[in-house]
Design goal:
Elements lengths: L1 H9 L1 H34 L14 E4 L6 E2 L2 H10 L17 E4 L5 E3 L14 E3 L4 E3 L6 E4 L4 E4 L5 E4 L4 E4 L31 E3 L5 E3 H9 L16 H13 L10 E6 L5 E5 L15 E4 L11
Antiparallel strand pairs: 1-2, 1-3, 3-4, 5-6, 7-8, 9-10, 11-12, 13-14, 13-15
């Protein structure tokens, strides 16, 4: 009996039939898998970049937990319920982390926050973060979630680091040397007064450590304003400007009655008080050679010691 079974297993015709059946089953399985993969891919791409608002491309809308109304994103909500709300008592922002319901843009099914629609299987956002309820179909720019910030950031996580003192994510190029300003991002832009921490606009970190919208910074420079609006320190290398002022001061002769006049100045760049000769063009700091100075009524205030 054992020999018979053995021969049957070794029979060429039996092997050919078995192999043929296996090939048929494998082909059917592969076709089924490919069909399933194509179907999933089709649902993943269906409607992508066709839905959303001016802020984000996404295939869902949010139900705001604060007012129970439906908006494309938190920025659309905040524009309608805060910036454009005439009644000051009704103004409010959308608390992004409290969002619990989303509505699929393709089938209009309201459901719990999730990436794939439970009804039609549509992917509602190619990028999805469940922690801050964020959807985005535009993946041209990388995004990552920072647990310390508590929100998603634009960029690659390996190119940014979170500074605990400044309270925000900065490029790794600043990791070894940037002036820390406590909670530098947790305030309004000093030009347009938009809150910086969760702004969707590009933000620049100035040499002094204060932050500002990049667009606002460029506007300042276009109007020949090269000092930080917060602390008045220069925002870039001004050595060529100081050299030009040196030549202008040397070429401008002061009147006889003003040649011996001295004034006290405070340097906005190094913070040192000095008594210098007055000049009608500008007063140069002898400590750091900066012309970013201001005249004061006297030197540093003297503090008497205790008895």
């Amino acid at each position: 009996m054992l020999m018979c079974v053995s021969r049957q297993d070794n029979d060429p015709s039996a092997s050919e039939v078995s192999s043929s059946n296996n090939n048929i089953n494998s082909s059917e399985f592969l076709r089924e898998m490919c069909s399933t993969t194509d179907e999933r891919s089709s649902k993943f791409e269906k409607g992508r970049l066709d839905y959303g608002c001016t802020h984000y491309r996404r295939r869902c809308r949010l139900r705001a937990p604060c007012c129970n109304e439906i908006f494309s994103c938190r920025h659309c909500h905040n524009a309608a319920k805060d910036l454009n709300e005439s009644d000051l008592k009704k103004r409010h922002d959308l608390p992004r982390h409290r969002v619990e319901k989303v509505i699929c843009s393709l089938c209009n099914t309201e459901q719990d926050v999730q990436q794939v629609c439970q009804n039609c299987g549509t992917c509602m956002g190619a990028y999805f973060c469940h922690k801050c309820k964020f959807f985005d179909d535009d993946t041209s720019r990388q995004k990552y979630h920072c647990d310390s910030c508590g929100i998603c950031r634009i960029g690659s996580s390996d190119k940014f680091f979170h500074c605990q003192k400044c309270g925000c994510c900065y490029p790794t190029s600043l990791q070894q040397g940037h002036p820390c300003v406590e909670n530098a991002m947790h305030h309004n832009c000093p030009v347009c007064y938009e809150y910086l921490f969760d702004s969707v606009k590009e933000i620049s970190v100035m040499r002094c450590g204060h932050t500002i919208h990049l667009g606002c910074l460029k506007e300042l420079c276009l109007h020949s304003h090269f000092a930080c609006p917060v602390c008045s320190k220069t925002i870039s290398d001004m050595s060529h400007i100081w050299a030009s002022l040196d030549r202008e001061v040397a070429a401008t002769v002061m009147p006889e009655e003003l040649r011996n006049k001295v004034v006290w100045i405070l340097c906005n760049d190094c913070g040192v008080y000095n008594e210098v000769c007055f000049h009608i063009i500008a007063q140069k700091c002898p400590n750091c050679s900066s012309y970013n100075t201001r005249k004061t009524k006297g030197g540093p205030c003297a503090v008497s010691s205790s008895a």
